[in-house]
What does this fold into?
Amino acid sequence: MKLVVIGAQWGDEGKGKIVDYLANEAQIIVRFSGGANAGHTIVLDDQEYALHLIPSGILYPDKMVVLGAGMVIDPVAMFNELSMLNERGIETEGRVFIADRAHIVFPRYTEIDRERDLKRKQPIGTTGRGIGISYSMKSERDGIRFADLAWKQKMDELDRADRDFIEPFIDRLRPMIVDLSYYLKHRHNAQILFEGAQGTLLDLDNGTYPYVSSGMSCAAGAAVGGCVGPRALDGVLGVFKAYTTRVGNGPFPSEFDKDSEDDLCRFVRETGREYGVTTGRPRRCGYLDLVALRYACITNSIDSLVMTHLDVYDALDEIKACVAYRIGSRIVEDFPASIEDLNNAKPVLRSFPGWKRNLSDRLTYEEFPTPAMEYIELIERFCETPITIVSVGYERKATIIRKSPWRT
Ligand code: GDP
Ligand code: IMO
Ligand code: MG
It folds into this structure.
C-alpha cells in the first residue's frame, strides 16, 4: 500500500509526528518536496528531533528513507542532520538514499534568497534556505541534479565556487544516489509512505500565491516528486491543526485579532509551543479555517483527515471555527484565489462549547467528552471527509486511531 501524508493548512500541522507514527507499518518513507525550509518534529522518549531534510521514518532502525526527486537539497544541511542523528544513537548508514533527479542547493542560492526577499516590495518572509532560487534555477534549466555529479563535462562547466563546494561531498554522496522510479519498482510490494513538506496553502500552484513556497506540497507532488504515477497512490491523508497557524507573510483570514483576541493568541501560541522549528519565529495563530480546510480536501482528493493539537483547546470555555468569509457585502464559502479578497476577508465564526477536560489521557475516541466529539464531527460534515486520526499531544502515544489508513 502507498499512502501520502500532506499538510492541509500553511505547514507545521504535525506531519512529522504523524509520518513517524504511521512509519511503524511502512518499509520505505519518501520525502517528496521542499528542502531545509521544512522543520518536522518528532518527540520520542523525552527526546525531541527536528528534521529538515531527512524523512521522518528515520528514527526506526529498519526503515529505508529516500529524499525524493521533488526536493532541493543542501548537502551541508543534510550531512549535519545525519551527524546529529548519529550522535544521538540513530544509525543511518546504508538506509538514506537521494533521488538522482533531486536538485542541489548551492550556498550562493541561500544568499540570493535572503537578499531578494528583503528587496521585495512585499516580502514573503522566506526561511532563507535558498528554496525559491533552487526551484527557479530548476525551471530555468540551470539547476544541478545529483545525477549530474557523475557527468564530467557538466562538472567542468560549473562555476569555480560551486565546484569547490560540491567536490568534497561527491564520494560520500555517490553510494546514496538512486534512480527512484526503479528503486520503487523493484520494491513494489513494500508499504510506502510519501511524506509532504509545507502545506496545501503554501503550494506553488494551489496556495496563496505569491505568499507560498516554491515546491509541490499538494498531494499530486507525491507522484511527481516521488517518481510514481498518480494511480500508484492508494490514499491521501491531510494533516490539520485544531486551529490554524502561519509563519511568514501573506493572507490569513481567520487570524486572531491583535487588539481583541491577543490573550487567546498568546494562550494558543504558548500552549501549542507555536514557534518555528527552522527559524524560531513565533507562528501567527488563528481559528480553524474550515473554508480553507475544505478547499484542501477538494484540491488534494484527501480521503482521510488527521486532526492534531486538539489538546491545546482543553482548557477553553468556548471554541470557535471559521465557516465562511465576509468579503465586503458578500458571504463566501469557497476559498478565493484573489489575495485582495483574502486580505479583506473577515471570518464568519461558529461557536462550540469547550470540553474543559484533559484529552491526552484518553485512549480511545469513545472516551472523548461529547463537546470534543461534536467539534470533530462538525468538521467531518463540513469537509465531507472523515477524521480517522486525532492527535492529542506531541508524543507518539498521544495518537488516537479511529481507522488505520493501512487497512482498507
Ligand atoms: P510539521 O512541520 O507539520 O512536521 O510540524 P512541526 O514539527 O513544524 O510543528 C508541529 C509541532 O507540534 C511540533 O512541536 C510537534 O511536536 C507538536 N505536535 C504535533 N502534534 C501535536 C499535538 O497533537 N498536540 C500538541 N500539543 N503538539 C503537537
Ligand atoms: P513544514 O514542512 C511553515 C513558509 C515560509 C515563508 C514561505 C516561503 O515544516 O510544514 P521558503 O523559504 O519556502 O521560500 O518560504 O513558506 N514555509 C513554511 N511555513 N512550515 C513549513 O514547512 C514551511 N516551509 C516554508 O515561512 O512564509
Ligand atoms: Mg514544520
